[in-house]
Fold these 3 entries.
Entry 1:
Amino acid sequence: MNVLNFVNAFFSDSAHWQGYDGIPARLGEHVRYTLEALALAAAIGLPVGLVTGHYGRGGNALSLVATAGRALPSFGLLVLMTTLLGFGMLPVMIPLVVLAVPPILVTTYEAMRSVDPSPVDAARGMGMHESRILFQVELPVALPLILSGLRSAAIQIVSTATIAAYVSLGGLGRYIVDGLYQRNYEKVVGGATLVAVLALVTLALFWAAARAAVSPGVRRS
Amino acid sequence: MIRIDSVTKRYPDGTVAVDRLSLEIPDRSITVLVGPSGCGKTTTLRMINRMVEPSEGTILLDGEDIQRQPVTTLRRSMGYVIQNAGLFQHRTIVDNIATVPRMLGWGKQKARARAAELMERVGLDAALAKRYPYQLSGGQQQRVGVARALAADPPVLLMDEPFSAVDPVVRKGLQDELLRIQDELGKTIVFVTHDIDEAIKLGTMVAVMRTGGHLAQYAPPAELLSGPADAFVEDFLGGDRGIRRLSFFPSARLELTSDPVIPLDATAEQIAAPDAPYLLVTDADGRPLGWSAPRDLVAGDIRPERLLSHGRPFVPGTDSLRVALDCAVLSPTGWAVAVDTGGRVTGVVSQATIGEAIRSAHAAGRDDEKVAG
Ligand SMILES: Nc1ncnc2c1ncn2[C@@H]1O[C@H](COP(=O)(O)OP(=O)(O)OP(=O)(O)O)[C@@H](O)[C@H]1O
Ligand SMILES: [Mg+2]
């Protein structure tokens, strides 16, 4: 039996499309974890990246934090958090957020730093307030890079959110963990396929978001 | 009037960029700051809109210290144009120009209408309104920069090497455009350049600065050319300042002669009559066709294609002595052709006569200086 047969068998089994362990339910849980973790990471990474990037200070401290964040293994962190905090949503969210903050923070900072300084100088010279310079002069130009940071964070969360299943939460990881436990490889492969598809959908969504939000003057098309 | 009063700028690293500079910038005229790289021109300009704060001294705008009003209010009363235009690449041309009016709370329609008006004023085709900056040439971008600075009709315009990144032909166009706009609007313009020719062309007053942020000389361009204050200024003006000074003398008083001017259908007597080595032949409308020695001309059979080129003519009312001299120098016969604005010949003038005019103009200039001194 090859992988394609597994995939076919998994998706054609109507039992996999219903109930609390059905694909729609697991997919919904996975998307929810991803959105929550991404929102939290963005709420931390974006403002800090924007402000430090605008003022051009704190770049060193920032890359230190980012490196440290990247060095932490998500699974280890999950185990540690669960030991400390018990089972629940929080011990899962922490490693996902820790995973997602560095790419958001670092790319946002870099994106702001790479904005051409002369429009900023011109804006300041015409009496524009600093906050307006940040949001109306720098941000629109930095947006493509910032979105790419959010995109890689989102992809990483999508694939890493499978760990939630290890601490008895849902999501697509359920199929992988349970499948391995039950030696049901059809389930394992099906789960992994769903994760990959979700990652591709995420890519497509970010592509569409960039089309919609980035000015044609910045996109140059 | 902007009055810079004994201003010094010391940067945190100890560099003294401007050293006890005092300057009175007259209203409704172009004042040019010129000097070699690093002499403190940009620093001086940026102290006027407080992008740089002086270490010592004060700057007064209409008698009031610029420190006394909020910095954003001050900046909104001064248009600011920088070298690479600094356009907002995510905004269309019309929205770039409408930036300050929008900031001042104008409605979108009114601001855009104003922007469209300014595009016309700076010579930009209305079809460019919806484009983005990357779709414009460097010269067009620079025009947008000027339009954006003028959008809220500020009384003062600060310009930092606005035309230095474009090629010479485009630069000349932009300079002419600025002079025309200035004629119409009468702004108080402070203009920074390192190009002395640009300074002389544009400036009502020219401040020559030298490294270390010192003022070497502050004078109208003609005065600068006739009497450089010291060796540095003289050197900075370059080797041909005598010729360039001729730009400030009109050619209107040149004595023209129309004796050697004959029509295409001239008779043998008309060809023989003038006592001149060359004759200028004109067409039926009086436009110049070319030069010829009288002995090469046959009455009734003058062939325009056989004539020597008449070169570029000058217009006595509008062109300077420099242009007239240039025409004479470039003419194969050594005579310059004068035409009216319709291109019809009003007379010709020899290099010798132009030389006379130059000598008497210089003499008159010296007398003026004596009176002034
Ligand atoms: N932010 C700064 N910190 C320290 N020194 C500075 C700073 N800005 C300018 N300087 C120095 O001050 C001096 C004057 O600089 P400024 O930019 O005013 O010169 P400039 O006449 O405009 O030169 P250029 O023609 O090259 O533009 C230079 O020696 C420059 O290195
Ligand atoms: Mg400069």
Note: The two ends of chain B are 25 Å apart (CA to CA).
Entry 2:
Amino acid sequence: MSELTTLATVWLDGCSGCHMSLLDMDERLIELSSQFRLVYSPLVDRKTFPDHVDVTLVEGAVASEDDLKKIRKIREHTHILVSLGDCALTGNVSAMRNTFGVQPVMLRVYEQNADLQKQVPTVGVPALLDRVRPVHEVVPVDVFVPGCPPSADTIYQVLSELLAGKVPTLGGVAHFG
Amino acid sequence: MSAEPNVRTLTIDGEEISARSDQTILEAAREHNVDIPTLCHLEGLSEVGACRLCLVEVKGARRLLPACVTQVAEGMEVTTHNPKIDRYRTMILEMYFAERNHVCSVCVANGNCELQSLSLKLGMTHVEIPYQYPRLPVDASHPRFTVDHNRCVLCTRCVRVCSEVEGANTWGVMGRGGQSMVITDLKQPWGDSETCTSCGKCVQVCPTGALFEKTSVGSKAHKHPEFLPYLQIMREGEKP
Ligand code: SF4
Ligand code: SF4
Ligand code: SF4
Ligand code: FES
């Protein structure tokens, strides 16, 4: 028996909608599950990223120091890195703060619009980068899957091809939004 | 000697076709069901050759030529698709996405946008050009319509329809290059415009989410630019 493909999924600055869409594959997920082993994911209980992963799906943009550290490590230990969804691909809603800058946005949310305990949180939360960035602006990406979120059908197509040893291209299949 | 001096014979993607001498490459191609992507072109309006998505290769020409403003010529050999042309076109699309703030997931035009459908058609999956994130205004002062400059691709369809069809001349373009913006009257709020008749034609022809009707967004925001050729035919009929 050949070795099963190892699969990881990570969640950076996104809404978890891409992970929901992944689960939306329903019984097709079971069909595919015989071909891979999920080694790291918000859906499984493992704290550190493994040394070698065949395919990693990234949801979300790179928005904080923590995201940046994580994605660099993930890239180093992943064979095929997949940007899953518009936040990973474009920054999407996460990046809408880029036109205003971090400080004005923080003040607006945590002081001007707050009723109680007006203060910008600094303890126990990672510092935000001055700009939210798409994943491929930070590390090289191998597969781009547009959509907010990408449909379950699109994710199924991507995973099936990856598990068959192909590198899918989504040109003409999916668009932003 | 040719019996019809106004007819030109040319090839498009290797197929020999005939066209009238006053036709553009785009018109001749579309008449023969050859698809060339366009954005600023709209049937019923004058051509401006602004978006460059319709670039084609013409044998002997030193650079790619915009099909919407290039007239056919005898013996012309036109190529509408090859890797070089396709790459140019996706690069242009990427520039549109990077220059302003296109957040399709929360855009009023999501699912009804020509820029978005062009990206699908041309196989663009992501943008390599660094995003600019400019800070741009939204003017919602008009009682019925809104202009969101974050989504404008400066195709000038609004300018042309307002001047050429409605005759109101409300829209204009201000500034140059990356600083260009469409403006109403002398850069007054649209709601204060004394020339706008509120006909809504600019909204209907705008290919993106830049111009929209306040009461119809999202899945309801389907636009109807096809009214233009009909309007023209009707007006032709009225002429004495
Ligand atoms: S105008 Fe079109 S491309 Fe731009 S954000 Fe809206 S739907 Fe997307
Ligand atoms: S609503 Fe009509 S008159 Fe007013 S700006 Fe648009 S096209 Fe011009
Ligand atoms: S507002 Fe719409 S029609 Fe006018 S230039 Fe911008 S994209 Fe084109
Ligand atoms: S359609 Fe020809 S330049 Fe825009």
Note: The beta strands of chain A are 5-11, 36-40, 53-59, 62-64, 78-84, 128-133, 143-145.
Entry 3:
Amino acid sequence: MTARDEHALEMDFAVGRHDFAAAGEVASRVKQVLRQLGIASDLVRRAAVATYEAEMNLVIHSNGGKVVLRVDSERIVVEACDLGPGIPDIELAMREGYSTASDEVREMGFGAGMGLPNMRRCSDSFKIDSSVGRGTTVTTVIYIAEPGS
Amino acid sequence: MESRFHSVKLLEDKCKGCTNCIKRCPTEAIRVREGKAVINAARCIDCGECVRTCENHAKAIMANSLDDLQEFDYNIALPAPALYSQIGKASGPDEVVWALEQIGFDAVCDVSFGADIITECTRRYIRGNDLPRPMISSACPAVVRLVQVRFPGLIPHLAKIESPMYAAARVARARVGEQLRIPDDRIGVFFISPCAAKITAIISPLGSEKSYVNGALAVSDIYGPLMASLGRGGSSRPLYRGSGLGFGWAMNGGELRALGDMKALAVDGIHNVIGVLEEADSGRLQRVDYIEALACQAGCVGGPANVENPFVARVRMRDVSAGVDAGSMATSLQLARDCIDEFGEGYFCMHEPIQPLAGMELAESLESAIARMGELEKIVAELPGLDCGACGSPTCRTHAEDVVCGRAIETDCVFKLRERMQQMAEDLLRLARTDLPSMARRDDN
Ligand code: SF4
């Protein structure tokens, strides 16, 4: 899929570091878009949960970044990219309940260490690319089953 | 697209084409076209926000009238608990029952009793079902329709329990049929409704194929005749009366109060409900077991078919609820349990699945929807983002939606129109300034 493909949609949503007031807005927007595309509600639901977690990860851990939504006739891709600080140990980060969120953030009820595992649970394919100092890209893919396939 | 029945209708001659209602509609169902509001039937959830908003009273709630009682041999009124909140303190519930009999009903069955039955069914349902959390109450039909139209992902969370009105109708029908030996099709059961959504739910039921209620009267429509009879002051008992907790269902938080101790959340007012459902839909409320969600602020006492101020009505409702003494309260609750034993628990569960309702999609196929979404984004980026509503759509984004779906043109936006006119004027000026071969050259260009 390329961005130039007219049968593909690509939308960017900026997410600011520690912008808790806006948290959840990207997930709502993504949900609205997918709903308007006529995507089945269980897939919309999974994409919304993945987006919410992606968005929260950017708010809590990153120096700011963006969520990119891509949709074509085969799949929904939710990608969260940031410019740092990067994840030193991905395996550890994927463990349920593991979190590096500050106490302050946890007191707000966030940072329970379920973000990445939740994203993986919602996706058909899931990938993390990260390097310390450069940043992280988390890619969640949800396949749109064609009727009869 | 199938067009569904709606009790909320526009009275064209009263509509001035202002844009107040389009802004408040929770499903963006209204547009102003050719000077009049137009409701998109596929999206409308009959919440009644527009009825409340319209200062010209151009939105009306269509319901049955007392004349419709003539179709039946025996008529039962099912007053919503909220009815009692609309009547001054001087008249107690028994006087209201008597007044209902004066205006044409043969018997009255309080929906508060249905609420007692549904409370017990819901309690067992929550306990006995491993449904996805949080479960969402389906007591408010506007909320159920909202879920169907805007949050179809939450359909599995809806408690598949019938409404208090339905429970009251079934027990009242059964009792009258049995004791008076009246054939079922000769019994008319009419709900006295505080809102539009219930009326719609009666005419096109949500979960069950057959509606046990024959029609609905709006509180505001019978208020006059009812008050006139009340003045003459008799008193009468209903077939069934609920407990104070049953009456409490008409107020925000009342269903939860009746259900008792639970990890639950109560929300009222359709826009607040949307906020909470957004949270639930992104998987953020899994630790909540149950959500009571009511479309109207303050609960059913704030229904759009009522006459009283919602907050005044709530105080009265509290008095009515507290006025049921402990003895009759225990009797009602026991009677409700007996009814469940007699009819069986499954009797009060919805048997038809709740389906998503189409209405938000940009196109039928995914490919064309994607193409339109791309186009939509481009149009939105060019619009001023003031959401002024002058184009007849509630927001710049909905205007763009309407453009890509062929329901509007870009220059319906006054800013776009202005831009286009400026462009044309500049073109005209440029043209006017072009030199003609026969004329001397001007120095200013
Ligand atoms: S009743 Fe509610 S959903 Fe229907 S048009 Fe009015 S505001 Fe919109």
Note: Chain A has a mean pLDDT of 83.
